[in-house]
Predict the structure.
Amino acid sequence: MIGKLIVFGVGLIGGSCALALKARDAVREVIGVGRTRANLDDALRSNIIDRAYALDEDWMQELRDADIVLLAVPVAQMENVLKRILPVVSKHAAITDAGSTKQDVVAAARSAYASCPEANMAQFVPAHPIAGTEHSGAAAAFATLYENRHVIVTPLDETDADAAQKVAMMWQTCGAKTLIMLPEQHDQTFAAVSHLPHMLAFALVAELAGRPEAETFFMHAGSGFRDFTRIAGSSPEMWRDIALANRDALLEELSRYQAHLDHMYAELERGDGAALEARMKRASEARRHWEKVFRERKR
Amino acid sequence: MIGKLIVFGVGLIGGSCALALKARDAVREVIGVGRTRANLDDALRSNIIDRAYALDEDWMQELRDADIVLLAVPVAQMENVLKRILPVVSKHAAITDAGSTKQDVVAAARSAYASCPEANMAQFVPAHPIAGTEHSGAAAAFATLYENRHVIVTPLDETDADAAQKVAMMWQTCGAKTLIMLPEQHDQTFAAVSHLPHMLAFALVAELAGRPEAETFFMHAGSGFRDFTRIAGSSPEMWRDIALANRDALLEELSRYQAHLDHMYAELERGDGAALEARMKRASEARRHWEKVFRERKR
């Protein structure tokens, strides 16, 4: 049982974690700290949190007996929030995050801990729950978001085993499976399977929306387009931060993808049906195999 | 009530049309003609069709009293099938297709009709039902596939109004809304909203599947990846044909997309968060607006 959980950023990610723990009676109280009052009021009304503070209100005293502090704010804000937390947070609290990139969060944490010598980095447990929808805000949160999902934990050399265990238990209680990775390996992998697809989907919709024929295009777009572009409805602010935070790995993936697309373009231009079909077949077989494994994992 | 419907290619598209008509008692009998016996047997077993013929069997006599002939074969096979049909098909039948591209089907039809002077092109009604899943074959067919979907009809100058009406009625009976477009406009629009996304999804999965880290990538891919790549599970043969059939329009769309991606790459490389966010915001707003309109259309 977690005593007090403090969630910074009570949106889809932080809010769903709180809801999942409450649904299982696995937390005594949840405190929410956020930027906008309207969102905090949504969170209070939905019983996601028990008390709410705007960032500029006096939430400091809540930190003194916190068990877990979950930073579910955009990646670019982690360092600032950490700097404000560290001087007052309980030495027994585990501090964790839900950022989509890990090397930059680790760097932000190192910088924040360096600025507060009395705090101990052993309590910091970088993590990334692999779940989400294209919606954001407390109103989008739901208790089953993490069921059968993965949460990647990327512990540091300094990380205390008990703190890591506390964070892993929290996510497991939410229904997720926790996996350990190195921060670099995490960032490279998610550049390929998540950040790149988001960029590609944003690019397609932005390109079509800017055309004079945009209205005709959208009128005729069907369910293939719907699924392909679902992630293009995601938060621009959040994805700007993720793209910048994971810039090197993402540029590398973009380059590879563009090279691949150049090959397909050339095959199509010269009417090379066999080459095109071979490429499509590789994709189709891999995708069908993946779908089967993915479904089994979800059971 | 349609008397006799003959479906060439009893897969997801042709099979679902037959099932939808049968579910509404809107057809007396459905004859299926196809390439593989196993798929025809599936179709017989599921009561999609009442009689089945392999392409090399003697299905000619069935054509003499056909009301509608639906060509649901890959685009590249239309001309050959039409050439075999035209000498024997009833003068009163409407002949239509379900091809994903229209200019090439029109060209194939013109060529087939030119080779059979006694046939009358007035009976030919090019069409494209905008529906599908990533699955193919008779076993994937279901009666509600066309409900609230669009079917684009691209009548020719020669097309007889009664034949066009018969085909439109058939699709409306399946639950679809029929819309008229010019073949060129159709091909340009679907290059952008359907053929391009398919190429992009095939490219992503083929690229990742070919990497040494493929297993790690797929293990960590989540629901964003699942939706983005769903269409990469589609039939390589069918999409090879579509890409080749709509080559010019698709190359044009690919070029535009690549240029757009180059801009995003440059923005990311120079760390221009404002430009990236503006692009993502355009996409996100357009996508959210589209989703709302799309959902209302489906009601």
Notes: The mean pLDDT of chain B is 96. Residues 198 and 231 of chain B are 6 Å apart (CA to CA).
